[in-house]
Amino acid sequence: MAACKRTERIHYPLPIGAPGRTPDNELLVYWPIYDAWSKPEGMEMLIKVHDIDEWLHPTAFYQQVTQLMKTGYSLDFVSDKMVAQAAVHNGTIRTTTSAPEHQVLIVPKTRYMPLATLGHLLRLANEGATVIFQQLPEDVPGLHDVENRRQQLKKMLNGISFSGAGDIKQAQQGKGQILLSPDVQKALEHKGIRREVLTDTGLKFIRRSTPDGKYYYLVNHTPKPVDAEIPLNIQAQSVTILDPQTGNAGLAASMPDANQTKYGCKCSRAKP
């Protein structure tokens, strides 16, 4: 019964689509599925959980996502179809009319990209979104009319007028912007998109937005307890702490600081 109560307390603020609670992730990350499908080894690519050491872990996509999450960014993934369906609302990106808003769309290092997907990425930028490329795509997938499609890809990429030197190149695209940088985190900092610094302590988090504020689910997977002043990326009048293990709850000592709120966090290591 105690385990059920703990699960209930953890689960309450987290379900996607629950009334008044929506995911609060600032980044969208494109998954380059055609890179996985275009491996020359064998005639079949099975994308299943038991083979992630083959089709997922070695990829630039996985390395980029892992680093962003470890650094303190929260994110969702998008497919080619979701990119095609996405729209811009006040500079933010929605994959559907009811989906939460994201501040930027990131394209990790990608070799193969359909012309339609690149066209939709350019469309989103034209409509006011910010799109960050770690590296521009090199080729189109498939062999049908391949030379003609390669020429179209080259023409579309040449139509992006980048300026600037160093690690970040910029292109104004309609109402929005395209950034090209091998260092995605540096590009995010350039755009003023803040990470959750609390991950520097080793804590991991899930964040949900509500009409009255935000829920943070924190977990400590490090071998030691965390006892530190933790900044949260929200201006809050107060911070309430809930221990899902015991059900104990109360106000934490907290203090607003610029665009953040600092509070005293004591988080024991998670039990297996």
Structure report:
Helix 6 links the parallel strand 6 and strand 7. The longest helix is centred in the middle third of the chain and has 13 residues. The protein has eight helices and 16 strands. The chain has a six-stranded mixed beta sheet with strand order 3-2-6-7-9-8. The chain folds into two domains: 164 residues, Rossmann fold, CATH 3.40.50; 71 residues. With 272 residues, the protein is α/β, with parallel strands linked by helices. It is globular, with a radius of gyration of 21 Å.
CATH topology of the largest domain: Rossmann fold
Q: What is the percentage of strand-forming residues? A: 25-35%
**DSSP strand tally:** 16
Structural class: alpha/beta
Name the average pLDDT: 90
Q: Could you name the CATH class of the largest domain?
A: Alpha Beta
- Sequence stretches where pLDDT stays below 50 over 5 or more residues: none
Shape: globular
Strand order of the largest sheet: 3-2-6-7-9-8
Largest sheet: 6 strands, mixed
Percent of residues in helices comes to 25-40%
> How many structural domains in the coordinates?
2
Explain the layout of strands and helices.
Layout: H1 2-11, E1 22-23, E2 27-30, H2 33-37, H3 52-55, H4 60-71, E3 75-78, H5 80-85, E4 87-89, E5 92-94, E6 104-107, H6 115-126, E7 130-133, H7 146-158, E8 169-173, E9 176-180, H8 184-190, E10 203-210, E11 213-220, E12 226-232, E13 240-242, E14 249-251, E15 254-257, E16 260-267
Parallel strand pairs: 2-3, 2-6, 6-7, 7-9
Antiparallel strand pairs: 1-10, 4-5, 8-9, 10-11, 12-16, 13-14, 15-16
